[in-house]
Design goal:
By secondary structure, this protein is mainly alpha-helical. It contains three helices and two strands.
């Protein structure tokens, strides 16, 4: 009887191991890049910000104790897209970035008050009342 060798020896699994190892490394790099670009970058950028130190001087020129100072943050010109302009993926991406940056700034800087200035929406004059209500609800979220 003749022996039939099917080729399932050790040497045939090396390319499969290399491919799976390469795939695992690629997945790890993509995950690390996404984690950094979509989450950690906001902490690194906003962590460099701080509140200015306010020093008051008495009339005789000596420094006195610090009086309480209001910590205010200004948010301007968000230009959120509505249902008419822009692609849904672009809208999702922009709003994700704005929300992450805003929430990170709130958490790290802990302002006492936030002022919202400028254009909040891009499509106010074209929106239907229902679309406007959806946009306002999305903004408040």
């Amino acid at each position: 009887m003749a022996m039939i060798e099917l080729g399932f020896g050790r040497q045939n699994f090396h390319p499969l191991k290399r491919k799976s190892s390469l795939l695992l490394k690629l997945i790890a790099v993509v995950f690390a890049v996404l984690l950094f670009c979509e989450f950690l970058i906001y902490y690194l950028a906003i962590f460099q910000c701080n509140w200015p130190e306010v020093k008051t001087t008495a009339s005789d020129g000596e420094q006195t104790t610090r009086e309480p100072v209001l910590k205010a943050m200004f948010l301007a010109d968000t230009h959120l897209l509505g249902e008419f302009l822009g692609h849904w993926l672009d809208k999702l991406r922009r709003e994700w970035q704005m929300e992450r940056a805003f929430q990170t700034a709130l958490w790290l800087l802990q302002p006492e008050v936030v002022f919202i200035l400028g254009d909040i929406f891009d499509e106010g004059k074209w929106s239907t009342p229902e679309a406007w209500a959806d946009d306002v609800e999305r903004f408040q979220k």
